């Protein structure tokens, strides 16, 4: 059975960006002796909010597209100008931890403290709390979805088990907490993310051809379009916002927009639609 989308659209497209800045590098470096001195790797992350976010906002404005930006609250504090600019342009801001913490390693009390601290920062800086969450640094703890629902979140975009949104089952109950799954094959970081030392990836040998990645992203979209699914592109400004790669993203957007009846939406819009219709 084909899914039903607004105004008879054939499929949904969610453009999402994880504005991690240097948090992922700082978190990784601290486990290495002397890692706090690895400032070159930190600069990779700093490029994201300083140079890439403005390019991404310009591209989205050019094509009049909505997007969702998942931002650690520490990044919002350190880079207030691009953070506020995202909200001013009408895009959604989603929760991504405070310092891109691994929620799987934290107690319930520690997770609640991070959630509440980050929501307070969002409220202070842009006037409202986040309604969506993406788990930072891999997995979340078993209790995390319940904590998020209790905190008033509408949805998560964290798991990998489907290519459609779904209602999360908590304690045996099917709830109105919606999951919008992203996929590794639609993640720019696993295609392009690279650093010489500390090694990322650990085995090295990865800066992929842009043409190959563009072709993969296009073919995945064509599959999602054929089956009427929810295409979630998970990107990182420090990766996708480089001069050549932003042109690659523009080519992908042009390709998607060449198809009729595509619904571009934020995570919040998709989750609200799913909640009301499924």
From TrEMBL:
- Which Gene3D superfamilies did the record assign? Glycoside hydrolase/deacetylase (3.20.20.370)
PROSITE patterns the UniProt entry points to: NODB
Pfam families attached to this UniProt entry: Polysacc_deac_1
| NodB homology domain residues | 38-265
Under the heading InterPro entries, the entry gives: Glyco_hydro/deAcase_b/a-brl, NODB_dom, PgdA-like
Cite the GO molecular-function annotations of the record. hydrolase activity, acting on carbon-nitrogen (but not peptide) bonds
Which GO BP annotation is one of this protein's? carbohydrate metabolic process
Which regions span the lipid bilayer? none
List the PANTHER family: POLYSACCHARIDE DEACETYLASE FAMILY PROTEIN (AFU_ORTHOLOGUE AFUA_6G05030)
Q: Name it.
A: Polysaccharide deacetylase
Task: Output the lineage of the source organism.
Answer: Bacteria, Bacillati, Bacillota, Bacilli, Bacillales
């Amino acid at each position: 059975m084909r899914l039903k989308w607004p105004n008879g659209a054939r499929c949904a497209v969610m453009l999402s960006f994880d504005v991690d800045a240097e948090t992922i590098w700082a978190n990784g470096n601290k486990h290495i002796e002397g890692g706090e001195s690895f400032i070159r790797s930190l600069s990779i992350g700093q490029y994201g909010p300083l140079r890439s976010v403005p390019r991404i906002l310009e591209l989205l404005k050019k094509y009049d597209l909505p997007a969702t930006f998942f931002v650690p609250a520490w990044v919002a504090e350190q880079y207030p100008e691009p953070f506020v600019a995202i909200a001013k342009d009408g895009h959604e801001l989603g929760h991504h931890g405070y310092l891109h913490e691994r929620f799987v390693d934290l107690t319930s009390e520690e997770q609640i403290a991070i959630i509440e601290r980050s929501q307070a920062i969002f409220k202070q800086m842009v006037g409202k709390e986040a309604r969506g969450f993406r788990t930072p640094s891999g997995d979340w703890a078993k209790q995390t979805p319940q904590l998020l629902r209790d905190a008033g979140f509408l949805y998560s975009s964290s798991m990998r088990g489907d290519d459609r949104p779904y209602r999360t089952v908590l304690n045996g109950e099917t709830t109105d907490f919606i999951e919008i799954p992203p996929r590794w094959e639609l993640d720019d970081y696993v295609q392009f993310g690279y650093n010489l030392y500390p090694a990322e990836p650990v085995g090295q040998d990865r800066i992929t051809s842009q043409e190959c990645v563009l072709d993969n992203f296009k073919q995945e979209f064509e599959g999602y379009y054929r089956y009427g699914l929810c295409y979630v592109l998970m990107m990182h400004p420090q990766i996708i916002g480089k001069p050549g790669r932003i042109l690659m993203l523009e080519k992908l957007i042009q390709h998607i927009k060449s198809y009729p009846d595509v619904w571009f939406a934020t995570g919040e819009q998709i989750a609200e639609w799913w909640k009301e219709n499924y």
